[in-house]
Write a structure and sequence with these properties.
With about 475 residues, this protein is an alpha+beta fold. It has 23 helices and 14 strands.
Length: about 475
């Protein structure tokens, strides 16, 4: 039974719901945050959890919009990275699509560029490293964005410099060693090989190079009075660093830009290689709060959640109920472990982090245990959400309010108990092994009625704390 139980993989995608009903049944619709030709963004409040979210309303215009929209949602469901916009729910009616995402109050990076004119190298490197980390992560997962630009990069809040990449409408899955041919992107940022209709994922690295150039001087490397002029200059691929704006900027910064804007994609650095460039490693060096680090490592040592329902509940709480402040407190520690910047922690990276706090033999034992218990989706690495599940203070996470909100989400028919069918729905309807599902219920069902009550659910979750 244990082997069958291990086949159940829980991820944040399990809790991205697709709904056909009225969105007003679940959310209080608030003020408009922004609008475009085909989409409007509004602030909304969940009636269940009280969490503030962003609602993107996309008008339906063509029949193929549905397939494109479903692909965007499927891509967002798979992506777990601190610098990628998180999706929560997806609705559809006859006129519109509706995507519920996390909300970012800091505005577009484009607005920051307009207001500042340019960034100093330290601040610019901090932003570029985050963008490259997200790009490296999606490329490793065979996803290409194809429209990276400052308008599609939001600042998380007004109080921090954490960025989130948004607008995945042009993103797609790609196959290694197979070229794409559909022209996709925005003038200024589009790579020359995209215009020639033969390109791979390194088109995103070119866009990152353009963004970095603009951040450091305030204008694009390929300019013109019309789109046609801009695109012709991109096709030529020639750019310069005028001394008036670039005289005081380091050679390392110019070198990285030149490496990202190599006309031949085969000579262009990958996102992974860009993260190793000395401009990034030299400029971005954040000090970690030792007290926070020790506290989180101690939380990880005490983490124990073998039961699938415990894992599912923790995944839901971290994804849907933790505040930005609670998540961001641990972000720098996660990034300090993530040496190669791919947005996930390998066994080796966790081991290196633990060796700073304990002897090598103890660190190795602890890492083996962490990989077996914390890698909930069985991917072989620890993603950001899994790290949060294990490193967060569980007394804070598993408080009465959060447990009750989670129970209500699992209790889909609202009858006061979680049934076997509701367990199946939580774990993915494709999983149909009746005996395994029954064993999951029996682990918590102390009165033997075949269902899990609120008190039984709380008792099960409180065992994680004690």
């Amino acid at each position: 039974m244990k082997n069958q139980d291990d086949k159940i993989k829980i991820s944040k995608g399990s809790f991205v719901n697709f709904k056909k009903g009225m969105i007003e049944n679940d959310y209080i619709i608030g003020e408009e945050c922004g609008s475009g030709a085909f989409a409007t963004v509004r602030k909304v409040k969940s009636k269940t959890t009280g969490q503030i979210r962003a609602l993107k309303i996309i008008k339906k215009t063509k029949s193929q919009d549905s397939a494109r929209m479903y692909l965007e949602v499927e891509i967002l469901k798979k992506l777990i990275h601190p610098n990628i916009m998180q999706i929560f729910e997806f609705y559809e009616d006859k006129k519109n699509f509706y995507i519920i995402t996390e909300i970012c109050d800091g505005g577009e990076l484009f607005e920051q560029i307009v207001n500042k004119g340019s960034f100093n190298e330290h601040d610019g490197a901090n932003i570029i490293k985050q963008i490259l980390s997200a790009v490296n992560y999606i490329h490793l997962n065979n996803i290409v964005h194809r429209d990276l630009k400052p308008e599609n990069i939001l600042l998380d809040t007004n109080k921090n410099d954490i960025i989130k990449i948004i607008d995945w409408g042009t993103a797609r899955f790609f196959e290694k060693n197979k070229k794409m041919n559909k022209v996709s992107g925005t003038p200024y940022y589009i790579a020359p090989e995209v215009l020639l209709e033969k390109y791979d994922e390194k088109c995103d690295v070119w866009s990152c190079g353009v963004i970095m150039y603009i951040l450091l001087c305030g204008y694009p490397p390929f300019n013109g009075d019309t789109d046609s002029e801009i695109l012709n200059r991109i096709k030529e691929g020639k750019f310069v660093f005028p001394s008036e704006e670039w005289g005081n900027i380091s050679n390392d910064a110019k070198d990285l830009i030149s490496c990202m804007l190599k006309f031949n994609p085969e000579e262009r650095l990958s996102a992974s290689d860009c993260l190793k460039h000395k401009w990034i490693t030299g400029q971005v060096q954040k000090k970690i709060d030792i007290k926070v680090s020790l506290r989180c490592l101690e939380n990880m040592k005490k983490f124990h959640a073998e039961r699938k329902l415990q894992q599912a509940a923790l995944t839901y709480i971290v994804n849907h109920l933790l505040s930005k402040e609670e998540k961001n407190e641990l972000l720098e520690l996660f990034q300090s472990f993530d040496k190669n910047g791919d947005g996930v922690l390998s066994k080796e990276e966790i081991y290196e982090g633990y060796k700073q706090q304990m002897d090598e033999e103890e660190a190795l034992r602890e890492v083996e245990r962490i990989m077996s218990e914390i890698d909930i989706d069985k991917s072989g690495t620890i993603d950001y959400n899994e790290f949060l599940i294990a490193a967060t203070n569980r007394q804070k996470v598993l408080n009465k309010e959060k447990l009750e909100q989670t129970f209500k989400m699992f209790d889909k028919d609202g009858n006061g108990s979680i049934s076997l069918d509701e367990i199946r729905s939580i774990l993915g309807n494709s999983f149909t092994d009746q005996k395994v599902l029954e064993s999951i219920v029996k682990e918590c069902d102390t009165n033997g009625d075949g269902e899990i009550s609120m008190s039984e659910f709380k008792d099960m979750m409180n065992k994680i704390i004690n």
